[in-house]
Design a protein that fits this description.
Chain lengths: ~525, ~500
Amino acid sequence: MEFAELIRTGQAQAELLRGPEEPPLRGTLCITGHHLMLSPGPQATPDLWLLLLRNVDSIEKRVAGDSGTITLRCKDLRVLQLDIEGVEATLDIARSIEALSSLESVITSFPFFYRPKGLRLGDAWHFHPPECYYKRVARETNAWRLSEANEDFSLCPSYPRAVIVPRAVDDSALARSARFRQGGRFPVLSYYHAPSGTVLLRAGQPLTGPQKRRCSEDEDLLRAVLAGARPGARGFIVDTRSPQAAKQARMTGGGTEAKAAYPGWKRLHRPLETGRPLQESFVRLVEACGDLEQSMDRWLNRLESCRWLSHVKETLSTACLAAQSMEQEGACVLVHGAEGTDSTLLITSLAQLILDPLSRTMAGFQELIEREWIQAGHPFQLRCAHSAFSHARPKHEAPTFLLFLDCVWQLGRQFPLSLEFGEGMLLALFDHAYASPFGTFLCNNEKERCLCEVRTRTHSLWSGLSQPKEQRKLRNPLYVPNPLAIWPSAEPQSLRLWQGDPPPPPWRSSRLCSASLPVLFLLRPVSARDPST
Amino acid sequence: MEFAELIKTPRVDNVVLHRPFYPPVEGTLCLTGHHLILSSRQDNTEELWLLHSNIDAIDKRFVGPLGTIIIKCKDFRIIQLDIPGMEECLNIASSIEISEWRLSYVNKEFAVCPSYPPAVIVPKAVDDEALRKVATFRHGGRFPVLSYYHKKNGMVIMRSGQPLTGTNGRRCKEDEKLINATLRAGKRGYIIDTRPLNVAQQARAKGGGFEQEAHYPQWRRIHKSIERYHILQESLIKLVESCNDQTQNMDRWLSKLEASNWLTHIKEILTTACLAAQCLDREGASILVHGTEGTDSTLQVTSLAQIILEPRSRTIRGFEALIEREWLQAGHPFQQRCAQSAYCNSKQKWEAPVFLLFLDCVWQILRQFPCSFEFNENFLIMLFEHAYASQFGTFLGNNESERCKLKLQQKTMSLWSWVNRPSELSKFTNPLFEANNLVIWPSVAPQSLQLWEGIFLRWNRSSKYLDEAYEEMVNIIEYNKELQAKVNLLRRQLAELETEDGVQESP
């Protein structure tokens, strides 16, 4: 299919409103296969304004007289307004944007065409292979090995080619355990905590089913974990579902680990929402944030009833529980929910940020995202297909990754010196997860990325972000390495709505000017109104 | 008063003078005690010497950074001065402008209004006799006085107590004359009543009331609703209680925060202050603010409007002056309002965290404009502490009259004398401060207002990490300044070396 077929009109005269902070932009509007472009003419600076069409979440058109207005609500939560000359042109442009922004094919997406100057294809893709983290683990302990049992993605389609497993367990046992776990996600090492010699594992739910099926290889695997840690070590299984939900899962073939079958392991239930309730929470929050005229009561009421901050609180306190079990009780921890690709990853990645000073550095955080989200098989393509503005019926969308970034932001707010990256990094990750010229967040897992040849045909976000001019925006100028664990407070009074207006760096002479509303991350409105009119 | 005090900018260069029959002259403008002088400092051109007493009226206009003052003289001559720089132009204009205001000592013995200071600023056209009459028509004797003069356009904020119209709609000619004297010809003003209309109407039954349109045709009345007294105190008690409750989930916390209504009060006060500032700066209209007594919500509005409009009030000295003028001398009854705080069970009608709400509103603006204030959050927290309990005499008593009787000036130390010592000042200085001469419009959308953790969660959370971050930020800024100084020094040395080279090479 050709993009040209979907483009109904070449160009039109238009005026763009980008929000209260910036002046309107006038010029010629063009649509290409991947972009919406506005060219204000050669004298103007900047001479071109670009929007990735993939970023458009919803589109609304209005015509009046001989002109029209298109409101674009973007996945990064920006709201843009285009005033276009000509009714026909408006309708054509709206239809073209609609068609082009909803293309689902991965290999025709922009990252496959993006060839920026100064970057070479293939750079940075080799930064964080599983071998890399295994070397770190192997330096500390001999109890673990790198298994390539999943070389052809046959054991588990959502795992990478190589995973870290107990040395005592061979590949055929892994294959059996994979058959006993949802999506083939057998328990693998997520993080080795060297000071206490304990490990963090993640998996999918065991497929016990109504008959309470068992799997001796799976039991052996977990026994080997405890044996490898230290004599007498205990383990905790953190199930991210409520006891009832875990029990109900048996009816559909899932379930949870029976106490008798896993001696030494204790199960804890910490229910975390995923899927649709989370997406709805996100949509309602953004909706509430967009209304500047409401009363304080109504705002607080909506903030409460959307439950977003409750999700943040539950997530953070569960991550603290996992981290505490390892550091303070010297116990091994296995985390899973149902699929093991959403709330599970939230907990394992946050626990590492709490415990591991390395993951709080710029490079370490990128490695963490690569290892615990991208390679661990969080289905970005499905979860981030739409953001909070879309009217399409949600299917698999959920802002799990945004919830993770929000929790990291809360950590950064409570420990302003301890993260090497700043709020700019978190905002960039959010933007790129939903729409990006880079290939990093494409597809749902490594298997799909292999099929699409993402690694050889697109640029990596990590090399994009490593450009010096990007780094300035991403770093936390206050960073001082902190070798200790950082224990966040998950009390409701300690948590804040993430607004996303990084304060101006002190050494630059930037200052907030008059007549401006602070731009909320969750609120990038079209027009500002005077406060009291 | 000395002439020198009135002259804010004694000299401006590159001023262009236009006058009849002469070509434009560029030169230096000087203001002396009696004259306005423009000299091109060239022998053959004539200098202008204009007696201040010859000035009949002046107009000012701005085009970009260039200001123009048109001086209309008593001998019918009209001359024009083009002055580069808005600040200079405003200073010159305000120095030569004939003041429409005077200082009145009618309240010298605190007999006219017990809660006013001995000296107040009133329109020149109104004499002390009239002021005495107006005082009998206003609650607590609080006749309208000047609170703030907006240099940019000459508009003013006045404040007073409610008019005592009562049920028979009593009127007072002198009151009408007084507030009309503040209006320019053909201009309208706004009266901002901090009570909702129905409350203002009910007040008539108790002898109070509001200005009737018929008697004040040049004024438009706007009613806002800022809560008072025990409602505020209860709000504070509920808020502090829920902040201290460590055993709750997110839903409960947010609904308790909502139920305390504290942030709603903040929003109402800030909205009204923005409205007042807008009337002055955007509409170019003067305003009169009052509620009932004119000692609580009135002062919140007039002082916050000044924070928004007046860059000087965002400096440490300027903010101290604002507190002194708009709260202490303006008669906010600190002794009564701050007798008890959030934990005490004795609920007295006159206790209310009016001043704390004001400080919270300032904090909200500071948070939105982190570089525009010379002081930091600690300065506001310090003022809160001293308003409720202090080893200094500054916040004692309910008004100047009481402070006089207690001889506080002789018997106690002033808070300001302690605060202004360099060792203390360094704790209160905002390292991000860069003088911002603009009006700053805060957002009052509910999403923009936040709980002031520095006050309300101060004893529940260790601020260790935040303090460390603050220290680090100060260090970075200091280091940056050092580097900047080094760069400048090296540049100078380079320039010197280059000229030396030039000198050596030339012979």
